[in-house]
Amino acid sequence: MELYEGACELKLLQTLEGHTDRVWSLVWNPATGTAETPLVFASCSGDKTVRIWEQNPSPSSSSSSHSSWNCKAVLEDTHTRTVRSCSWSPSGKLLAVASFDATTSIWENVGGDFECVSTLEGHENEVKSVSWNASGTLLATCGRDKSVWIWEAQPGNEFECVSVLQGHSQDVKMVLWHPTLDVLFSCSYDNTVKVWADDDDDWQCVQTLGEPNNGHSSTVWALSFNKTGDKMVTCSDDLTLKIWEMDSTSMQSADGYAPWRHLCTITGYHDRTIFSVHWSSEGIIASGAADDAIRFFVEDKDGLVDGPSYKLLLKEEKAHGMDINSVQWSPGEKRLLASASDDGTIKIWELASLCTGNGY
Amino acid sequence: MVSELINANPIVYEKKERRARSAPIAVEEYAVEPIDQQEVFDHVRDIKDPEHPYSLEELKVITEDAIEVDDQQSYVRITFTPTVEHCSMATIIGLCLRVKLLRSLPSRYKVDIRVAPGSHASESAVNKQLNDKERVAAALENPNLVDMVDECLAPSYD
What we know:
Chain B: This is MIP18 family-like domain-containing protein. Chain B: Keywords: Chromosome partition. Chain B: One of its GO terms (biological process) is chromosome segregation. Chain A is mainly β. Chain A is about 0% helix and about 50% strand. Chain A has no helices and 28 strands. In chain A, the strands form 7 sheets. A 4-stranded antiparallel beta sheet of chain A has the order 1-28-27-26, with no helix packed on it. Chain A has a 4-stranded antiparallel beta sheet with strand order 2-3-4-5, with no helix packed on it. In chain A, strands 6-7-8-9 form a 4-stranded antiparallel beta sheet, with no helix packed on it. Chain A is globular. Chain B is an alpha+beta fold. In chain B, α2 crosses α5. The interface of A and B includes residues 126 and 237 of A.
């Protein structure tokens, strides 16, 4: 694929204002962005609310694309502290919201209106991240109490805690399920990524990716998988991104769990903490950092002599006026990226190819 | 609040004389004046120590030389020196410094806060916590901590 040989440019389509405090994260609804369903995403903020944004179904002309996003709903008066992150169920019908108030709320989308249908309690203090598994049957949460909780969805929007996983020695920053397998990944202030798998209804840590395995030397803030789920990227306060690969050739014994190994480290690009990383379905890694810049990386097919490596495709300096906390590629056809910042805004970008007739 | 003081008898130093900011000569009236070391020092010198009725300057927790400013890069680093090696107040002092600068400096500024190398028994742990903005955000939603910080900051607004 010569997809990236041509030059690319990042076009700012719109800046969305509405949150009255820093925007911590945003997540696209995975069931949107089709011919019938316009793109939708949710954003979470220190102002204790979640906002739901929708793309106008038919932007009348290209020149008016500047006003093509609207805030459709504000989920408020439920959480009493910062709303840190959220996660859509695979069907896009439910939204799980993690808050510093120690609870996780579940919202149901009923014809465009969002209704809080359940509240998950159990964490001692700040809940920092929440994630649905691929089938929508399991939910994971994590927080400052160092634990990771796994919840099973029951009929009638009930959620039963099936496991409380203690393993991290510090604050757990993020949980994320593998895109196809029921294997859970968590990353932490203790500098590690832990992999959790289910052995006969008994969830346990099957691998720890830490400094001895070429892992990070400071807080790991986020992780993301490539489309097929055989590679993972992590980002850290140590100013690096690391690429990991599932080693399916050395399947471990009975449970069939394939261990992960360090593939390469992307270093020397970021000046401050990297808070967010997201791998697009076509293989472009976007990162957002406390240096206010968004960067894009792609695999460098020329440099295979020393093993796989990644090169910088594009850098957008001063993408926001303050720290960038979240970058997320949209589902659907267009190569859209949304970014969220301490400056209280969300920006919608399009990564466009300058070259014509080069592949697509 | 604290029944037994962590450092019962701190050494109190004389305050540095307050320099009037030297007026730049013949600049345009509306020209933006760069932020310098002295300005940042003036923002934080009068912050009260969490356990003593003295300012951070009087206890030499903060000195002007311990403040690095790069206005072009919008960057400030403060290196403070806790009065004792095991000072459990170090994270509170750091939080006070961060909040004061958050309220005083333009939002473009990036601020790093650390304890002086060798001045604290858990130096790296303290530094890591002080620079984790998620931990700082959570702390600032804790009413008890906010009260404590506000009390320490009060004299710095006079």
